[in-house]
Amino acid sequence: MLGAAGMALTMPFPGLAAQAPASAPANTLKLADDLFVLTLPGEPNVVVQTGRGGALLVDGCSARSADALMKAVAALPGGGPVHTLFNTHWHPEQTGSNEQLGTAGRTIIAHENTRLWLTTDVTWPWDGRRFTRLAKIAQPNKTFYDTGTLESGVRYGYISDAAHTDGDMYVYFPQQNVLVVGDAVSGQGWPVVDWVSGGWIGGMVGGVQRLQTVGNAQTRIVPARGAVLEMQDLRTQYDMYGTIYDRLTQLLNKGRGPSEAVAAKPTKEYDALMGNPDEFVRRAFESLWAYLSPDA
Ligand SMILES: [Zn+2]
Fold first, then answer.
1. CA–centroid distance, residue 55 to ligand 1 (Å)
2. What pLDDT shows up at residue 294?
3. What's the pLDDT tens digit per position in 208-232?
4. pLDDT tens digits for 43-59?
5. Residue 80 pLDDT > 60, yes or no?
6. Residue 160 CB neighbours (<10 A)
7. In angstroms, what is the span from residue 89 Cα to ligand 1's centroid?
């Protein structure tokens, strides 16, 4: 079960779920003198590193909030124009500033798979949501396959397990000991398993395990949604997703389908803390098809 630590950590980060008006200010959490979490109303977390050369962002909100984000970044202590943007994955809630920053000639770094997803239209079959490819100028202009290091010492790498998508990446700030993980880890409720772009429940297990090898016991972890986490929270999530993975693969091996998986309540001991699991279980079960039963 997610322990008391996970609960307590959720509390000092208010306003995240609140649907405040678009004019509401960004919620700012200071992680270090030059490192902040900015959360605009209705948007995922953005991590900002400030410095003499300007600001570095990890993720860039959806397009409707791009202008507000740039204003909030400029207003931070030591804030200034953005020189570098990381896309932790291709979803529009992370890539909405790409066009503005790409047009301005800024560096946009992502895993090569993320760039590829942004060059194609995507539709989610479970809710019909359609995503349109980005203009060339908005696509990541510096991609990688494995790991990389900036001149400043900031390290980044591929989460090759395919947890949320097959292009997930982390960004690690060693000086501040902060690890930014995008949607590969959820800090607030059940995650989305985007199997259309390669994410799967087995990758969620592998991802939270892999991320424990980046940093150390004191590392603070910033997910795209929810509170700042600790390494202990990743261990707890590893146990939880591992348990759910085992149960879902057993159901798959018995020939069950997604609705039967939902009815089997494979998450029951976690639901009080994590919320209604039905959509998560359905996506997680469907995600097994591509990896474990290619003929399905
Ligand atoms: Zn996402």
1. 23
2. 52
3. 999 999 999 999 999 999 999 999 9
4. 999 999 999 889 999 99
5. yes
6. 17
7. 7
CA of 268 to the centre of ligand 1 (A): 24
Tokens 């398993």 correspond to: 193
What is the distance between the alpha carbons of residues 193 and 108, in angstroms, rounded to a whole number? 25
Q: What is the pLDDT of residues 134-145, one digit of tens each?
A: 999 999 999 999
> Tokens at residue 235, please?
């261990």
Q: Which pLDDT belongs to residue 59?
A: 98
pLDDT at 208: 97
% the chain with pLDDT above 90: 88
CA 164 / ligand 1 centre spacing (Å)? 7
How big is the CA angle at 231 (ends 226 and 232), to the nearest 5 degrees?
95
Per-residue model confidence (pLDDT) at position 295:
57
CA distances from 71 to 54, 55, 138 (A): 13, 12, 20
pTM of the predicted model, to two decimals? 0.91
Distance 254 CA to ligand 1 centre (A): 31
Ligand 1 center–CA 249 separation, angstroms? 24
* Distance separating the N- and C-terminal Cα atoms of the chain: 32
Number of Cβ atoms within 10 Å of the Cβ of 246: 12
Ligand 1 center to 43 CA (angstroms): 11
CA 121 to centroid of ligand 1, rounded, Å = 16
Q: Which amino acid is at 173?
A: F
Tokens of 84: 């570098």
Give 52 Cα–ligand 1 centroid separation in angstroms.
31
- Rounded to the nearest integer, the mean pLDDT of the chain is 92
CA of 168 relative to ligand 1 center, distance in Å:
9
Ligand 1 centroid to Cα of residue 186, in Å, is 10
Burial of 194 (0-12, 13-18, 19+ CB in 10 A): buried
| Cα of 9 from ligand 1 centre, angstroms | 22
